[in-house]
Specification:
Chain lengths: 456, 369
């Protein structure tokens, strides 16, 4: 039997889901790029009056600073902290490198945010050994190649893997920083033992309200929860949440690791509080939507050829109009030209309830990161405002398809925004008196919706 | 309004005028229709989307003068489907009745007062020879851009040039230029005509009503232009703006010159293009003494290559093009022989006829790594 196993090689031990999570990612990148910050409390986040903490080093966590904390509180808690605005291009660049390392192990990589991803390694054992070996391999490659700390957790299902990576992390208390294990692998037989001491709040879907209700029947830890009959939980929390929780408490989670699919379209839409009839105001909304779409496209290094305008009138009739250009577009100016042309053909008199803009026919913009040969149609260097937007004097490196004056503007806008935040620069049409701004604060913390900035 | 008209004549005028009717949802319902006007024994039909207006006239047996605005597409579909022979059309209040033989249709009409009032165009200020103009349209209109995001490039420049007229169009990847020397008199003007209008003008070419006409009347207004061909008038709003300086795009000289048979090149290009699955796959031309090798490498599909005999002067060179753009240019050349002139793999190339100098098709290569 032993011989037989040996000939097949390492096989699945049942803990095939791996969660890789960078430690204090944005802050760690800042420290990496500025070695003089090593050992100092560093906070990355919105530096404005209503900014929040996006990431902080463990040195800052010793003072009680944590993600999503209002920046004003964080500064008060840790007055000596170095507070930096985010440099998202840089984080994305490193995130892309992380992604490539993960893809070396398995193509089944689900990117959750810039700094975390799930892997299904069930098909990778022959090449890389058992899950523990793979987890260490990933941990060491990230440390060796990116020079950044990460934690790797593995388990039979997603949420166990996620809790495992959490358990592998360093911890910070006022007394000091304790190094983490770096890698924690929870095999199927260890799931119950691993889960039991966790507070119920660690389970997905358990917020403060559910936690309070559970506490009312004496349930504080997952171990407590596992001892409660499912119907009791259901009675307490409802069929849906209760049923799911009962399953989680037993270590069951049937969500598969879904490999990332390429974007098919990038879009934003807005429902108006009051139906909009004024073409001028509709155009203004359009400018805001287009700006968001263009920003998203460029930050994902994408461009698309088809611009789709979606309109829902007061009577809930939804219609779309689209226009396909010869060249992929990714600048607000180019998308707006097309979208406002489409909007012109819309009769706003019945009242517009919802307006949306999306770009489809998505292609990667600019140079192929993998260096695959790129073919590009060269264009004449045409002068004149109506001739653009388009190529001016042939493609520059990086953006062959959509070079030109507006691309340069867009690049400048991106540079300013990556440094000073999403609201630092806005289309003139959206700047209002008093500048309360028609956009909310930017959600900078990477979350499952990262890459889809909130639309005002 | 009431008239009787031959089915085929009625189909022709309604269809011709109907091409100008907007397919987009119109701001005014009446814009979705064509206006039929019967005056004496003349039936005139107009369709418009406010940018483009087509006006077609035919003889009819007028029974009662009047006007109605009817759904153009539906009327032409109905009339086309009728038995050959005479068709009677009568407007009765809010409907229009169309009858022929034992068929009878009654259609809702649009209020004729909602149809835009279209000023009569100025009488033609100059004329162009019909055959040469249609030839030029065939050569040039195809190079205009269809991308509304670049409005100026969706137009064709019609400009005074020397003692004649020059037509220019570019979509920024290729540029077509045709001189009609010694014809027309635009009095030094240059106008930018939407390619769509000229494409509609071009569609009149094979029709009988145009065949006998030796000239096309051109009348240029401040904001519009009207082309009159026999009984059809095509009017279009002009595009506003300064056309890019196309002259600076044309290389002063070409070190490399490939001279070959037009049909053999076209046939070879069409064959190798069969492997092109998307519009980013280029055709590579390797030019050397005695011939040119055409190659298409299509990643998922496979490869194709073909050799065409040719005279070549210059340095051996490989250059890639969008095969469709190249075919467009070669097709547009008059005569049996074509000359392809190049500078290098990233500079504009020119396709033209071997003898005649009045047509140039400038084409940007595709950069391949």
């Amino acid at each position: 039997m032993a011989e037989l196993t040996a000939t097949v090689g390492p096989t699945s031990s049942g803990a095939d889901v791996v969660h890789v999570d960078m430690d204090a990612f944005f802050a760690s990148v800042e420290v990496l790029d500025r070695p003089e910050l090593v050992g100092r409390p560093v906070i990355v986040g919105g530096t404005g009056s209503r900014g929040v903490v996006a990431a902080c080093t463990y040195e800052a966590r010793r003072y009680g600073v944590h993600s999503a904390m209002p920046m004003s509180l964080a500064r008060r808690a840790c007055p000596g902290a170095v507070v930096l605005p985010g440099r998202f291009d840089r984080y994305r660049e490193i995130s892309d490198r992380l992604h490539r390392i993960l893809l070396d192990v398995t193509p089944i990589v689900e990117r959750i945010a810039l700094d975390e991803a799930f892997l299904d390694v069930s098909g990778a054992h022959r090449l890389f050994g058992d899950t523990t070996a793979i987890a260490h391999l990933l941990h060491d490659r990230v440390a060796g190649e990116l020079h950044l700390p990460c934690s790797v957790g593995a388990g039979p299902v997603k949420f166990i893997a996620k809790l495992a990576s959490e358990a592998a992390k360093p911890s910070a208390t006022p007394a000091g920083i304790t190094a983490g294990a770096g890698v924690v692998v929870v095999g199927p037989a260890e799931v119950n033992e691993f889960l039991e001491p966790h507070p119920v709040g660690a389970l997905w879907g358990v917020g403060p309200v559910a936690a309070r209700r559970l506490a009312s029947i004496g349930v504080a830890t997952v171990g407590d929860l596992a001892g409660v009959p499912e119907r009791t939980i259901v009675r307490l929390l409802g069929a849906r949440a209760g049923g799911q929780l009962a399953r989680l408490a037993r270590g069951l989670d049937d969500r598969p690791v879904v490999p990332d699919r390429p974007h098919k379209s990038v879009g934003k839409e807005r429902t108006f509080p009051v139906d909009e009839v004024d073409p001028g105001r509709l155009h203004q909304h359009l400018v805001g939507l287009v700006d968001g779409v263009a920003d998203h496209l460029r930050s994902a290094h994408l461009a698309g050829r088809t611009v789709v305008l979606k309109v829902r009138t007061a009577d809930f009739t939804t219609s779309t109009r689209s226009h396909t250009s010869a060249q992929p577009v990714d600048t607000a100016a180019a998308i707006l030209t097309v979208a406002s042309g489409l909007l012109e053909s819309v009769d706003a008199s019945p009242g517009i309830r919802l307006l949306g803009v999306s770009v489809t026919g998505i292609t990667p913009a600019g140079a192929d990161p993998d260096g695959v040969s790129e073919v590009s149609q060269l264009a004449f260097a045409l002068e004149g405002p109506g001739a653009g937007p388009g190529d001016e004097g042939g493609p520059g490196p990086g953006r062959p398809a959509v070079a030109g004056a507006w691309s340069q503007v867009a690049e400048a806008v991106d540079a300013v925004r990556s440094r000073y935040g999403r609201t630092s620069l806005r289309p003139a049409a959206l700047v209002s008196d008093g500048d309360g701004g028609s956009r909310p604060d930017v959600q900078v913390r990477p979350d499952p919706n990262a890459g889809r900035p909130t639309v005002p | 309004m009431k008239f009787r008209c031959e089915r085929d004549s009625l189909v022709e005028v309604v269809t011709t005028a109907g091409r100008a009717v907007s397919t987009r949802s119109a701001t005014s319902m009446a814009l979705g229709g064509v206006r039929l006007t019967c005056h004496g024994n003349t039936l005139s039909v107009v369709g418009t989307d406010l940018d483009l207006t087509i006006h077609a006239v035919t003889e009819a047996i007028g029974l009662e003068d009047g006007v109605c605005v009817a759904p153009g597409r539906l009327v032409s579909d109905i009339v086309r489907a009728l038995e050959p022979g005479a068709v009677t059309v009568e407007s009765t209040g809010e409907n229009v009745e169309i009858s022929a033989a034992r068929s009878h249709f009654s259609l809702r009409t649009f209020p004729s007062e909602e149809f835009p009032s279209l000023p009569d165009p100025e009488p033609p200020s100059t004329t162009l020879p019909t055959a040469a103009l249609f030839d030029a349209l065939r050569q040039v209109v195809r190079a205009a851009s269809s991308d509304d995001a670049r409005p100026l490039l969706t137009g064709v420049l019609v400009a005074s040039e020397g003692d004649g007229v020059r037509l220019v169009a570019t979509d920024s990847y290729r540029l077509a230029l045709r001189d009609l020397a010694g014809t027309g008199d635009l009095a030094g003007q240059q106008i930018l005509v939407p390619a769509r209008a000229l494409a509609e003008l071009q569609r009149l070419a094979p029709s009988d009503r145009v065949e006998g006409e030796s000239t096309v009347g051109v009348s240029v207004g401040t904001h519009d232009v009207t082309f009159t061909v026999g009984a059809v008038r095509v009017s279009s709003r002009l595009l506003d703006g300064t056309y890019p300086d196309y002259r600076q795009l044309i290389p002063p000289s070409y070190p490399n010159r490939l001279h070959l048979g037009k049909d053999s090149l076209l046939d070879a290009l069409r064959r190798v293009r069969l492997l092109v699955r998307d519009n980013t796959t280029p055709v590579r031309l390797s030019m050397r003494q005695g011939g040119v090798d055409l190659t298409v490498v299509s990643q998922e599909v496979g490869d194709a290559s073909e050799t065409v005999d040719a005279d070549f002067d210059g340095e051996e060179l490989t250059i890639a093009f969008n095969p469709t753009y190249l075919i467009d240019g070669v097709e547009a050349v008059a005569g049996d022989e074509v000359v392809l002139e190049t500078v290098d793999a990233t500079k504009p190339a020119t396709v033209r006829a071997a003898e005649i100098e009045d047509f140039h098709y400038l084409l940007m290569p595709v950069r391949v790594s």
